[in-house]
Specification:
Layout (H helix, E strand, L loop, with lengths): L4 E2 L6 E7 L4 E7 L1 E4 L5 E3 L7 E9 L9 E7 L2 E3 L6 E3 L5 E3 L9 E8 L7 E7 L1 E2 L11 E4 L2 E5 L7 E11 L4 E6 L4 E2 L1 E6 L7 E10 L6 E8 L4 E10 L8 H30 L19 H12 L21 E6 L6 H13 L12 E2 L2 E2 L3 E4 L4 E5 L10 H9 L12 E7 L10 H13 L4 E5 L8 H10 L7 E3 L12 H31 L6 E3 L7 E4 L2 E2 L4
Parallel strand pairs: 4-12, 15-22, 23-27, 23-28, 28-29, 29-30
Antiparallel strand pairs: 1-13, 2-3, 5-10, 6-7, 6-11, 7-8, 9-10, 11-12, 14-15, 16-20, 17-18, 17-21, 19-20, 21-22, 24-25, 26-27, 31-32, 32-33
Length: about 550
């Protein structure tokens, strides 16, 4: 049975204006959209002003007079989606739908309400397409040789003719099937469609007659329709089975391969013996007479030198005043639940730069509001420190106050402030566990610095092809795509240099230090101008500066 995918493509805008005796609000949404099952999509809702409430409605096409559902809503600073957890809302009031399903094919509308009771409503018409997987048609018993090609072996006694069946199952909308010779000549065929079934899906079968004299030729089954992205083909070569058994050339090839394998084993054994002799040698202490650098070692050495020479403010892209006062040490704060991999991240950053594999103590301690009262500071260099906080009891939003105390220098156990926050989360755990904590954490960080925190997902090897899905979920909760990382921490002292893997950690560290430098500028400006002053620079390392005033953040010009 074929697997299904559903796709969403944004069309033109729709605009609605609702007027009343008192007020009117212009609301703009996309007029149409189309979707792939299993993916996420964002439906924007644009309007001017600060709302007290934003409602997203789901209307029933088959019963237009029925009361619409409210899958997600924003009210008094909070997002509510308990009945429809796949539906969420971003900071700009766009609706995010995850894991698209067939029942999501409806009409949606966005209705904001401002403080002065101004309101408006605009509609988006969502269409669902069930995409065939694979996209090309399928011929039963035809052995695939490469994408879009297969071989049909004729077995048994062949009469004057036999039938080939080409099919596409469980798609929406239905496709049309046709047969041609390889030169494009159309061949007679009989098409039998079926559906829709109980899930609203269609299947199509096309039967084609092959004559005995045509065995050895190639034929083409072509599917046409939206559910195969327009057109897809399968080249079917009809032939008799090849005789089994090894030829003289094949036997000679096997003999050559065995000799080659023996040579390879011998070379590996020699290399292993040489490696054993150098086992206790540190990667950075290779003899001076070695002329060739290991892969990635050049880039690694260059970036490592920059980080060793780093002082607070070195990586800032913002204005650099001559009289600006920089702290002696930049502190990065690591937060997360117990066993998320925080201590291993600290160890990996330290090892990647210094080459020393440290043992990070995981101490048991009491905590307040989920945050341990004994944060431990690790000095990576004289000017770079990482504060390793003990695990949160849970991801309760009450923990954010204690975290922000560290950012603002109110934690008596730290000599100074934490200049950039890093939230560590185990990628093997459901990302939905962050849906209440992460939006408020991002909002608090942006209020303090005007920039997003970093989100580090550990155990990256267990993620597989789910990185895009995890990113989409995290960004739907307010995280910034460019500040989401997937890492596999060093959990034991490596026996090889690992320059490529360490280089990725150093690149991440450099980006975090640049964000910390920009946060220091923001903090210094706020002290100089007062927390209530307008014209405070808001900056994410991947964005151009934006101006922040008492009405909030303005769009980039």
């Amino acid at each position: 049975m074929m697997m299904l995918k559903w796709t969403l493509i944004v069309g033109v805008y729709s605009l609605s204006l609702i007027t009343s005796a008192e007020s009117a609000l212009v609301v703009t949404t996309n007029l149409t959209a189309t979707a792939y099952k299993g993916r996420s999509i964002t439906l924007p809702c644009r309007f001017e002003g600060e709302p007290t409430a934003v409602y997203w409605y789901k209307h029933n096409r088959t019963a237009p007079d029925a009361e619409p559902k409210v899958p997600v809503q924003f009210f008094q600073g909070k997002v509510f989606n308990e009945e429809e957890p796949r539906f969420n809302m971003t900071a700009d009031y766009s609706m995010v739908i995850s894991d698209i399903r067939i029942e999501d094919e409806e009409m949606y509308s966005c209705k904001p309400v401002l403080e002065d009771d101004s309101t408006g409503e605009s509609f988006t018409n969502l269409t669902v397409i069930a995409l065939a997987d694979p996209l090309e048609p399928v011929v039963p018993d035809c052995k695939p040789t490469e994408p879009g090609k297969c071989v049909y072996e004729v077995v048994g006694v062949v009469t004057e003719s036999f039938e080939l069946r080409c099919r596409v199952d469980e798609v929406k909308p239905a496709v049309t099937l046709s047969w041609t010779a390889q030169d494009g000549t159309e061949r007679p065929s009989e098409e039998t469609p079926s559906g829709p079934d109980e899930n609203g899906l269609f299947s199509v079968v096309s039967v084609f007659t092959v004559f005995r004299g045509e065995i050895g030729e190639t034929f083409v089954c072509k599917a046409t329709g939206d559910s195969v992205n327009g057109t897809s083909t399968l080249l079917v070569t009809v032939k008799y089975p090849e005789k089994k058994g090894l030829s003289g050339g094949a036997k000679a090839g096997i003999a050559v391969f065995l000799i080659f394998l023996i040579v390879i084993v011998a070379v590996v054994a020699i290399v292993y013996i040489m490696w054993k002799k150098r086992k206790n040698q540190k990667p950075e202490n290779y003899p001076d007479q070695m002329q060739l650098l290991a892969p990635f070692q050049g880039d690694f050495n260059e970036l490592a030198e920059k980080l060793r020479d780093y002082k607070p403010g070195s990586f800032s892209n913002l204005e650099k005043k001559e009289d600006r006062s920089w702290p002696k040490v930049t502190r990065l704060g690591v937060f997360g639940v117990t066993h998320a991999g925080k201590s291993s991240l600290v160890r990996s950053l330290t090892y990647s730069l210094k080459g020393d594999f440290i043992a990070v103590e995981v101490a048991q301690s009491h905590s307040i509001g989920g945050v341990t009262v004994i944060p431990k500071t690790f000095a990576i260099t004289d000017h770079i420190s990482v504060v390793d906080n003990r695990g949160l009891k849970d991801l309760d939003v009450s923990c954010i106050t204690d975290i922000m105390d560290q950012m603002q220098g109110k934690c008596k156990l730290l000599d100074g402030t934490v200049d950039f926050p890093i939230l560590v989360f185990d990628a093997r755990q459901p990302v939905n566990a962050l849906e209440k904590f992460l939006p408020d954490f991002v909002k608090a960080t942006r209020k303090e610095f005007g920039s997003h925190p970093a989100i580090v997902f550990t155990h990256a090897r267990n993620v597989g092809d789910r990185q895009d899905t995890i990113k989409a979920q995290a960004t739907g909760m307010g995280a910034l795509d460019q500040k989401i990382y997937f890492v596999e921490n060093f959990t034991e002292d490596p026996t090889e240099p690992c320059f490529e893997r360490r280089l990725e950690f150093l690149r991440m560290l450099k980006t975090m230090l640049q964000c910390a430098d920009e946060n220091l500028v923001i903090r210094d400006n706020k002290k100089a101008k007062g927390n209530g002053a307008s014209n405070v620079v808001e900056m994410d390392s991947d964005d151009a500066p934006r101006q922040k005033g008492f009405l909030g953040f303005f769009k980039k010009k």
